Amino acid sequence: MAEVITMPRLSDTMTEGKVAKWHKKVGDKVKEGDILAEIETDKAVQDFESEVEGTLLYVGVEEGSAAAVDLVLAIIGNEGEDISGLTGGAAAPSAASEDKKEEPKTESNTTATEETSAEVPAGVEVITMPRLSDTMTEGKVAKWHKNVGDTVKEGDLLAEIETDKAVQDFESEFNGILLKQGVEEGGAAPVDTVLAIIGPEGTDVSAVGAPKAAAKSTDKPAEQKSETKEEEKSVASTENSSSERVAISPLAKKMAQEKGVDINSVQGSGENGRIVKKDIENYQPSAKPASSAPTASPAAQVALSFVQGEDTETPNSQVRNIIAKRLAESKFSAPHYYLMVEINMDKAIEARKEINSLPDTKISFNDMIIKATAVALRKHPQVNSSWAGDKVIHRGNINVGVAVAIPDGLVVPVLKNTDQMNYTQISAAVKDMAGRAKSKGLKANEMEGSTFSISNLGMFGIETFTSIINQPNAAILSVGAIIEKPIVKNGQIVVGNIMKLSLACDHRVVDGATGAQFLQTLKTYLESPLTLLL
């Protein structure tokens, strides 16, 4: 019997979804777990997998079009099955969609099409700056992976687009030759203006996109830019491999996090090398090859660029601009106050040593702090809340954001339902997200939804510091280094391992006594790790 697949609700604020790409077409066989389509929500583009097997009989939303949540997206059933009773009026049929594609462009087309008007030659595809997050108004081309004159295939990485939240890979949906770059590398352009033009080799596209998109694009003629890009081609090609994304199904990714498997070391057996469930189940870790010469840290790279007596300038990235804006808003809108406490980490050190003696287990002190914080938040829900003007929102889930330093500043990937994760899951998730954050591989939805944040500078030897609250959170925990120092124990001066914690609170939500009680509970959990089991 045919199954009706509706447009899924992939985020809590999603009201409609856009089909960025169909991975199956009408008549194709579909297996459970196959990627059916890529759905663009109000936050990011996500793979949508089929939960049923059969033949794709009907496509309710054409590629590039949007539909409201719960409307018919597709119908899967037995080959030749009559589905006329399921398609009536729910969505435009795929046949009509095909006819629509063949109609000549008119004045009623989208804004992006109006910009290029009737000047678009046959066979040419105009690619506009995509909206990659719900708050994005413009995008910056961090890096072009294809140069003018290069052959582009569907699925090829075209460019890296820097939004107000992260840098994301942008893949081509078309085959052809890259005829024009509408935005130079390092330049920015508003959403829906011309980003690139792909078409048959030799096609004249000099007039396409002018004059509306010209303001944000390069002033160099296409021919001159082509020559310049040819000189950079060899350099660009050597850099491409470092930023490639790992293709993995959501189920396989979840299993990898639970087992602490590094997905970068797994060989995928799915379509186009995609990692699937059985790859994680059958994964056997092997010895890592010796690494090549280490890459200079961001600080070292800055030092290398220092010239005595000469001032230099670095344009702000989109990430840096949005960090500056949001931290300023937080500091000047939320009344901050700070609470500090010292933690004796002697028993935590012993507990970590015992845990890490288990096979295939390696956790950090930061993992222990994250776990203890999440459990403490469950006991003190007021700290896990947000200010919303005329009300306080008490969050039902505990989602801990972990601050990660990147060359452009700071990002905060989020561990969803942290209180329900064990040490191994937390460790694997933090390592995965931190690694992808530094290689600009995080998706926008992986940095949203935090209810509390943690910033740890202990690895740099910093004993104590305070942080600015990551709104809409009501508090942020600052973690210092573990330092050996004299302490009084049972009336005797002995050497102890002390760690200082600082809690920044929004006084509109968290009163002083509430914050102090939360820190007392956290102190208990860290000084007596076994209490986490109670």
UniProtKB/TrEMBL annotation:
- At the top level of its lineage, which domain of life is listed? Bacteria
**Alphabetized InterPro entries for the sequence:** 2-oxoA_DH_lipoyl-BS (IPR003016), 2-oxoacid_DH_actylTfrase (IPR001078), Biotin_lipoyl (IPR000089), CAT-like_dom_sf (IPR023213), E2/Pdx1 (IPR045257), E3-bd_dom_sf (IPR036625), PSBD (IPR004167), Single_hybrid_motif (IPR011053)
Alphabetically sorted, this entry's keywords are: Acyltransferase, Lipoyl, Pyruvate, Transferase
Similarity comment: family membership: Belongs to the 2-oxoacid dehydrogenase family.
Q: Name one GO molecular function term.
A: acyltransferase activity
Query: So which cofactors does this thing need?
Result: (R)-lipoate
- Single GO biological process annotation from the record: pyruvate decarboxylation to acetyl-CoA
Acyltransferase recorded as keyword: yes
Q: Which SUPFAM superfamilies match?
A: CoA-dependent acyltransferases, Peripheral subunit-binding domain of 2-oxo acid dehydrogenase complex, Single hybrid motif
One Pfam family named in its UniProt record: Biotin_lipoyl
Can the keyword Acyltransferase be found in this entry's annotation?
Answer: yes
Protein name in UniProt: Dihydrolipoamide acetyltransferase component of pyruvate dehydrogenase complex
Q: What residue spans carry the Low complexity bias annotation?
A: 107-119
Basic and acidic residues: which segments have biased composition? 97-106, 217-234
Q: What is its EC number?
A: 2.3.1.-
- Ranges for domain Lipoyl-binding: 2-77, 124-199
PANTHER family the UniProt entry points to: DIHYDROLIPOAMIDE ACETYL/SUCCINYL-TRANSFERASE-RELATED, DIHYDROLIPOYLLYSINE-RESIDUE ACETYLTRANSFERASE COMPONENT OF PYRUVATE DEHYDROGENASE COMPLEX, MITOCHONDRIAL-RELATED
